[in-house]
TrEMBL record:
Residues 23-90 form the FlgD/Vpr Ig-like domain. This is FlgD Ig-like domain-containing protein. Pfam families: FlgD_ig, FLgD_tudor. Residues 1-128 form the FlgD Tudor-like domain. Transmembrane segments: none annotated. It comes from the Bacteria.
Length: 135
């Protein structure tokens, strides 16, 4: 836990569907097995879809940034949201695509299964972290 405290203030990436909206923005990446339409849905803590968008993805790694606005164009509060990304596999069937989110570490806490990293209100298990930067 003590070593995790050194992460506070750093930007990190994590393989998770928990999307931290910080300073009115959130970003994620996903890997598409083929080019084409990919559906992105953001839900609030109650499971309500607040933002949905279809983007044209290329094969491989794609990034998407959310401006924190809902489908009506209203700016939402910073906090923890959930994201789901769905695309097509190479055989044409619909498939859920794993996401990697980016956020700034704001705290460290002890969870039931170990150490958690806080990105604002989003709580991420430290084992889901995939990278860090100092900015």
């Amino acid at each position: 836990m003590a070593s995790a405290v050194s992460l506070i203030g750093k930007t990190t990436t994590a393989s998770t569907s928990s999307l931290p909206l910080q300073s009115g923005s959130a970003s994620l990446s996903f890997t598409a097995p083929q080019a084409g339409d990919v559906a992105i849905a953001i839900t609030d803590s109650k499971g309500n879809v607040v933002k949905s968008e279809t983007i044209d993805a290329s094969v491989g790694t794609n990034t998407w940034t959310w401006d924190g606005k809902n489908n009506a164009g209203t700016q939402l509060s910073n906090g923890a949201y959930m994201v789901a990304v769905e695309g097509s596999s190479t055989d044409g069937t619909s498939v859920s695509l794993p996401t990697t989110v980016t956020g700034t570490v704001t705290g460290v806490s002890k969870g039931s299964s170990g150490v958690n990293i806080d990105m604002g209100d989003a709580i991420i298990d430290i084992s889901d972290l995939t990278g860090f930067s100092s900015t």
